[in-house]
Structures are given as structure tokens and as C-alpha cells.
Specification:
By secondary structure, this protein is mostly helical. The chain has four helices and no strands. Helix content is 48%, strand content 0%. The N and C termini lie far apart (91 Å).
């Protein structure tokens, strides 16, 4: 079998020029190509000296990242806590609704803290906070933004639960 397409049309025969002598440039071709490589032909690829450039050190230890067994309980607690917080606020559960909502908020906050501690252990940080052991100081403006955000969320939650009771 041939590697390329075949010319099977009967009326298309290729004629070859009859030359009684060698080719004009002095190189004769065999049916499958030149017998010897000419001087200008080189092998593809870089030279051996070009193959070995500057050495690069690569860390062989695997990256520290949160695994599924670390994330599953955190996500589960966050989901349960947020549902416990949201359902009594959305639907009237009577006098016990405020207690269930506050318990859900507490569970959700605990899972958020647990997740932050797990992330810090593997080396992740919030924006504005330095890496563990880096010796840098935290940006006080970012800490203020985080504190105000947490305080606003807690104040809104307490206000909402207080409105349920009153």
C-alpha cells in the first residue's frame, strides 16, 4: 500500500521528458528522492549546545492546598447554619424562630472561622494580611474593613431577629 493518494484515472498519464544525459544541475534523483543529502540540508531541531540552557529549580513537594475532606465539613456546617438562619426569618416559626435563627447564625459563623483557620494553615491569606512567618505587618486599613464588615453583618442579623421578637 502506498502512503499517499493514488492517481487511478486512465486518461491522465504523466509524461516524462526524455533526457539522454544527466540532469542539468548534475544531481540525479532516485524514484523515492535524493540518495544523499546535499550540503545545505541539516537535521531538524536545536543543536546539542542549545538544548541545555539555564537550569531551573523546581519544587518537588506537592503544593499545600485544601483537600475535600477538609472542605466537606466546613461547607456542610455553613449550609446547615445558613438554612437555620434563613428559614425562621423567611417563614413564621412562632417564638422559637428567633432562637433557631441565632443558633443558625452561630453555626454559620463557626464554619466560616473554621474555614479561615484551615485556609491559613495551608498558607492562604485574606487580601491585606501577610503570609504566615513572613515577618511583615498587616495593613491596618484592611483589618478595619474586615472588622466593619463583620460588625455590619452581626448588627443586621441581631436587628432582624429583634424585629421578629417585637
Amino acid at each position: 500500500m502506498e502512503a499517499g493518494p493514488r492517481d487511478t484515472a486512465p486518461s491522465t498519464e504523466h509524461g516524462a521528458a526524455d533526457h539522454d544525459g544527466p540532469e542539468p544541475d548534475g544531481t540525479a534523483l532516485s524514484p523515492d528522492g535524493p540518495d544523499e543529502a546535499s550540503e545545505g540540508v541539516t537535521t531538524d531541531g536545536p543543536e546539542p549546545a542549545e538544548m541545555y540552557g539555564d537550569e531551573v529549580e523546581v519544587e518537588l513537594r506537592p503544593q499545600r492546598r485544601l483537600r475535600i475532606w477538609q472542605l466537606a465539613p466546613i461547607v456542610g456546617l455553613a449550609a446547615v447554619g445558613s438554612l437555620m438562619f434563613a428559614f425562621p426569618l423567611a417563614f413564621d416559626f412562632g417564638d422559637s424562630g428567633a432562637v433557631i435563627a441565632m443558633l443558625g447564625l452561630l453555626i454559620c459563623s463557626c464554619s466560616a472561622g473554621w474555614g479561615m483557620m484551615a485556609a491559613r494553615r495551608v498558607g492562604y491569606t485574606l487580601p491585606g494580611l501577610p503570609q504566615r512567618g513572613s515577618g511583615r505587618r498587616a495593613d491596618w486599613r484592611m483589618i478595619l474593613v474586615y472588622a466593619l464588615t463583620v460588625a455590619a453583618v452581626v448588627a443586621l442579623a441581631v436587628w432582624r431577629v429583634a424585629r421578629l421578637r417585637g
